[in-house]
Backbone:
């Protein structure tokens, strides 16, 4: 079946890089996503990667995809207090529904 | 267009009551999705529409849940005889199905509390 796994918590010092990892099971996924959810707010699409790509960079964000191992990571460079949120890894499965992980809560240390 | 909107934003109801939520997608988006998010979990797919046709329903959607999109624009999600386990955030998303589309745009959600 379809499943997305990610660690639940990550603490990082302000200014350091944050790396959030994710594994997924559906090898037929076409798109893989990282969503951000701040307290009381909706889901914001941060970035996405098409399944035939290995890497995508967008300003402070770098997404790495290892399709063989079904492993996705999100690196946030120069982490700021405003990056504190829950980050969801997700895959676009069959019939276009999005399968989400449980989310990684990113905590920024001063 | 200001994005996907959902009403109400919050709903508190007593167990056994019926509730109805509304979602207004981005105009011209032909696909509309409903998800449910419980505390500490990621959103879980419930159902989706292409125009007015409901194309898929998750097994999470019990007989007490019904969704409609009568004119292919806004959608409603009704829960009958609510139970405490129905307490969650109900998220709506919309997208435009065309070659290469990748993004579902999410609304702010309706938080349901069943007492």
Residues:
């Amino acid at each position: 079946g379809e499943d997305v796994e990610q660690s639940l918590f990550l603490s990082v010092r302000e200014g350091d890089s944050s790396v959030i990892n994710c594994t997924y099971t559906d090898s037929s996924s076409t798109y893989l996503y990282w969503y951000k959810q701040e307290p009381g707010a909706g889901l914001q699409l941060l970035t996405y990667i098409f399944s035939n790509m290995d890497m995508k960079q967008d300003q402070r964000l770098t997404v790495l995809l290892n399709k063989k191992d079904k492993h996705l990571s999100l690196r946030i460079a120069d982490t700021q207090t405003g990056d504190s949120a829950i980050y969801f890894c997700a895959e676009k499965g069959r019939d276009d529904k999005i399968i989400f992980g449980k989310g990684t809560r990113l905590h920024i240390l001063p | 267009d200001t994005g996907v909107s959902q009403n109400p934003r919050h709903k508190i109801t007593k167990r056994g009551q019926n509730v109805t939520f509304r979602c207004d997608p981005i105009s011209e988006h032909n696909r509309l999705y409903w998800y449910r998010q419980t505390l500490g979990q990621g959103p879980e797919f419930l159902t989706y529409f292409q125009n007015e046709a409901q194309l898929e329903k998750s097994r999470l959607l019990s007989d007490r849940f019904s969704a409609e999109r009568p004119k292919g624009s806004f959608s409603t999600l009704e829960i009958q005889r609510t139970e405490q386990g129905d307490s969650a955030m109900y998220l709506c998303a919309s997208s435009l199905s065309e070659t290469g589309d990748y993004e579902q745009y999410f609304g702010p959600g309706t938080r349901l509390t069943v007492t």
About this structure: The first strand of chain A starts at residue 4 and ends at 6. Chain A touches chain B at residues 4, 30-31, 41-45, 48, 50, 88, 90, 92, 95-103 (CB under 8 Å).
